[in-house]
Amino acid sequence: MKKINILYISPNKHNSKAVLQVINENWSGFLAINEVEASALFSEYTMEMILFGCDVDKKTEKKLRRYFRKMNSAIIILDHYGGGTALLKHEIIAALQNEKVL
Q1: CATH of 5-98, one of 2.60.40.230, 3.40.50.2300, 3.60.10.10, 3.40.50.970
Q2: Pick from 66, 84, 91, 101: CA 20 to 30 A from residue 23's CA?
């Protein structure tokens, strides 16, 4: 089975633990708390998905989306606004299946 890397971007380290726990149950999760970390992790690892937390400011999110798309036009980008672990897992699986990564 292909290793799937997911970059979760959120400035809130405390709340990010639960999200990373869900991601790491089935995939490999990486956390970036700011734009610099997100760019560095994206450059260092092959990411299949970017997951934006609801607490990322819109200006930063827009800038990062452009950067990620420029570097990899096939990258899957999702917004995660909360709603529980089951919903998050379902959203990730649906997006990966839709893009034929799973």
Answers
A1: 3.40.50.2300
A2: 66
Arithmetic mean of pLDDT, 16-34: 95
Q: How many CB atoms lie within 10 A of CB 13?
A: 10
Q: Record the pTM.
A: 0.93
> Among residues 71, 73, 75, 34, which one has the least CA distance to residue 53?
34
Do 80 and 95 touch, CB atoms closer than 8 A?
A: no
What pLDDT digit, counting tens, does each position of 36-81 carry? 999 999 999 999 999 999 999 999 999 999 999 999 999 999 998 7
Q: Are 67 and 50 in contact (CB under 8 A)?
A: no
DSSP 46-94: --SEEEEETTS-HHHHHHHHHHHHHH-TT-EEEEE----HHHHHHHHHH
So what's the pLDDT on residue 13? Answer: 85
**Count of other CB atoms within 10 angstroms of residue 98:** 10
